[in-house]
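Late entry, written up from scratch paper. The run itself happened at the end of the previous shift, but nothing got recorded in the book at the time, so transcribing now.
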Amino acid sequence: MESNRRKLLKALGATGLGLSGLVKAAEAIAASPKEADPQPSRPFPGEFYWGTATAAFQVEGAVNEDGRGKSIWDIFSHTPGKIKNNWNADVAVDMYHRYREDVGLMKALGTNAYRFSISWPRIFPEGKGSPNQKGIDFYKRLVDTLLENGIQPFATLYHWDLPQALQAREKGWQSRSIAEHFAAYAGYVASQLGDRVKHFFTLNEMFTFVEWGHGTGLLAPGLKLSRKDLNQVRHHVVLAHGLAMQAIKAAAPGVKAGPAENMVNAVPAIATPEHIKAAQEATRQLNAGYLTVMLEGQYTNEFLEKEGKDAPRFTEAEMKAIGTPVDFAGINVYMPNHYVMASDAKPGYELLPFTKVHPKMASSWHYVGPEALYWGPRHMKEIWGVKEIYITENGCGAADEQDKEGRICDTDRVMFLRNYLLNMQQAIEEGIPVKGYFHWSLMDNFEWVSGYATRFGLYYVDYKTLQRIPKLSADFYREVIKAGRVL
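Output as recorded:
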């Protein structure tokens, strides 16, 4: 360090050159007051959940085993041209058979929580009716293994794998009946696992699977609905969340539950009061069909006016169900969806475009903006008063290439994590109630339409042998957890 060099020169100047001078100089430096850590320790709360996250369809495989039914993603991924290189998730990373090994990977990281999803068609192959005992038994074994290793299970009830039987018979989320089927499924799972699983997420990324699965057709089930029909799908999805909240509470009164949504995160381009206010209003309005209606129990006037004759049809009882109070809210935060400036024109804010040279990670959609992990939680508290917040997903695709020694030195992911975690830490220090962080993902897996081309894991997976290999980012994350601060 420069200051030590100055001390050494000063000491040498006082004693003269030579061995005795060097000895005395070293003794003088050793006796001098220790300097402050150049990166002051900013500890996370002692009671904090450090975890990883996966989704059933992306990791489990075993799609035809133990009575599991087909999901819409089984059909979609086997449709030529839908997935890169026509890959599918029939095997994925075979977590169904390797879950004990994978829990060991979590323990090696030092994590104390794991967010996983439950496959609806593994529990109810037809989407409803009689449950599949072998399906629920698998998740009981997984939960028991987690608890034996000091890892708290956080279960997501829906991560996009709708039973194909419901899509074929009842048009999936286009039908109101699906919301009731989902509530029945949620209640059953809570009754079976609620003695050990204390946190349930209802649905994951409603915005994504509705807009991209039913609007653009790029995700399963691959539909391109009219604006009116798309709005009704949105309504059925948030209704499913509300009814599931009620069913979970009835089946397991002691558990906590809430959504896990990829909120549209509007970040003030400049953090002055007028731009912060504009970013909050933009966030509230841009999430009108999902988080806003769930947390407020009503659609905003602006949303209903904008949709006009295409607005969703609903009853007062449905709105009451949708607004069922949540115990917490999970948010998936990868980037600022928009940078925002205040505007004198309606609606009072301006959404700024990303420039052509704005930094990105490996995925073409993934603009880098670490401040998103500060503003997302802050918006949740200040707009809706959420008292318990979880970062249910955060991570990135990276280069992830093995060197000659077989190592994966993903310095890009380490850079990403360090800067995002520092912003989350700032939010916590300011009193934002972030209670846990789940890195996406534990290991590389089937990344939806990208197949196996994009890697998000802390562990590298050799897709030929299915060997799991820790990346540099796994070492980084382990040391952060161990130290309780960003390193």
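The domain at 48-483 is CATH 3.20.20.80 (TIM Barrel).
(Scratch paper discarded after transcription.)
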